Amino acid sequence: MRVVVDLTRCQGYGQCVFLAPDVFTMHDEALLYDLQPADEQRRHVLRAAAACPVQAIHLDRTALPMPPPGRQQAGPQPPATGAASKDGRIVIVGASLAGARAAEVLRREGFAGSLTMIGDETREPYDRPPLSKQVLTGQVPPEHTLLPRLREVEAELLFGTPATGLDVAGKRVRLADGREIGFDRVLLATGTRARPWPDAAEGALEGVHTLRDARDAAELRQSLAAGPRRVLILGAGFTGSEIASVCRELDLPVTVVERGPAPLYNAMGGVIGDVAAQLQRDHGVDLRCGTTVTALESDGNGRLSGARLSDGSTVEADVAVVALGSVRNVEWLRDSGLAAGVWGVACDAGCRAVDINGLVTDDVFVAGDIARFPHPLYEYQFMSLEHWGNAVAQAEIAAHNMVSDQAHRWPHLSVPVFWSSQFGVNIKSVGVPTFADQVVFAQGSPERRRFVAVYGYQGRVTAAVTFDQAMWLEFYRHEIERAAPFPPDFRHVGGGADGQPAAARVPERLVAAAGATVVVTGHDPAERRASLVHPH
C-alpha cells in the first residue's frame, strides 16, 4: 500500500494519528507519515483515510504492478488523426506528479483512446516533499516515496526516454533515441530541476549536493548520517530552510547563507522573513543574510573544505547544499514555436499553451511547475507556481479541458496554497503573499510562532500565512476569493499582535495598471467563474 497526504489540504485534526499511530505522527501541527506502510497496517490506514475530515489522504488500494517501462511503440509513427475528445491519441510529456495526476483524470473523464506517458527518469512517479523532510532524517527510505496510483491507468509508459523536441504543426514529440510519437493532443508537464552551482568544477567537489530527486535525497542523507563537522546551505528559501531544520534535528552544526534580507523573503516578504530568521537563530542556525557565497573551496583532494563569502569571511564545512532555486525544464521546446523560456511555458487559464505570437493553441496544454498562467485574482498577471497543490489542481483542469469542447472547459482559478514544516512549526500560506502592500497579524503572536498574518493589496485581502494555525486557512481562502476588505474588521479569539497593518516589505515587482477587482464564485470546478467588480 502506498500513502500520500495532500498537506495543503490537511488541517491538523489528527484523526489519522489516533487511528493509525504506527503510520501517522503529529509534531505540533506538522503531520509526518510513512509513505509505504507495512501490509499489516492496511486496515488502520483505510480507517484513517475514511475518518479524515478534509479527505486529504490518498491511497493506492490495489497496489498492482506497473506495466514494464518502454513497452510497445517501436519506431517513428505517422501524425495522429481522429477525434480529440474521448478518443484519439494523447501524449503526456513528464511523468511526475502533474503528469501522473493528469493521466488518472483523463481516464476518469472517459478518455478511451491511446495514452502515452514520456518521462526522463527510469522509476515510477514519486512524491517530492518528503525528500527534504522524512528521507533526510532517515524516517522514510527514498524508495518509499512513490506516489500512490489512485486508479489503474491504462497507458504506455516510456520511462528513461527524455523528449528532445516538439513539432506542433506535425503533432509529434521527438525523443532522445530518435523515435517520434504522434499525438492529437499533448500535455507538457516536464517540471523543474535544481539550479546547479555556477562553477561546474566547484559544484563537482565531493560533499557538494543539490536536492531535487530521490537519488539526491539518498546521497545527502548518507552525507548527513556520516556526521559532518559543519553543513553549509546556500539559500534560505523553503528547501534550504527545511534542510537546515533537519540538520539541527540531527544535532549538526549548520550555516545558512542567504542573498536576501531574511529567510523566505522571496515567498512571504520581510515581515514573516524576520520571524523565520529569529526562528532559525533560536534553533542554533548560523544565519548570514545579505551575503552570498563567492567560491566553494577544495581541500586539494577533490573534497569540499569550505567557502568564501562576499563579506570577506570564510566558512569551514565538509558538506554543502546548493539551494538556489530551480530551473524549468523547457530547453527541449526551444524550436517549437511556443512562448517558452526561463519563465516557463505561457498558457491561458484553461492550460492551453500560447505560441510566440500570443495565440492560444488548441492541441497543446501545460500543467505544473513549468506552466506560466494568468490569474484573475491577481490582475491577470502571469505567474508560475512550484507548489504541490498547484501541480495537482492544474493537471486536473488540463486533463478535463483536453477532452472537453469549448463550452464545457474549466478555468484554473484555484487560490495557491503552500506548506512547509521546519523547526517544529507548520507553516502554510494561501494566496500570493508577495502580491501585497500591507500585512497585519490578525490572530496570535509572532513571538510565540503561532499566528495568522493577513496580506492586503489596495484595500483587499490577497493572502494569508499561518504558523501552527492551519485550520484558519480555508476561511482566508474564501476571504481572498470574495475580495474581502483589508484590513479585516472581524474579531477572533486571541486577537492579533497589535491589530495594526504594517508595510509588507515584499520583493519589488512589476505593477500592472490599476483595474477592476476580480471576484471568484462557485465551489465545484464545473461552476467556478470569475467576474469583474468595477470601481464606482
UniProtKB/TrEMBL annotation:
Top-rank taxon, per record: Bacteria
Cofactor(s) named in the record: FAD
GO molecular function: oxidoreductase activity, acting on NAD(P)H
InterPro entries hit by this protein: 4Fe4S_Fe-S-bd, FAD-oxidoreductase/Apoptosis, FAD/NAD-bd_sf, FAD/NAD-binding_dom, FAD/NAD-linked_Rdtase_dimer_sf, Reductase_C
Region Disordered: start-end pairs: 62-85
UniProt keyword annotations, A-Z: FAD, Flavoprotein, Oxidoreductase
Domain (4Fe-4S ferredoxin-type) ranges: 1-29
Amino acid composition bias (Low complexity), ranges on this chain: 71-84
Coiled-coil region: none
GO cellular component: cytoplasm
The protein, known as: NADPH-dependent 2,4-dienoyl-CoA reductase/sulfur reductase-like enzyme/ferredoxin
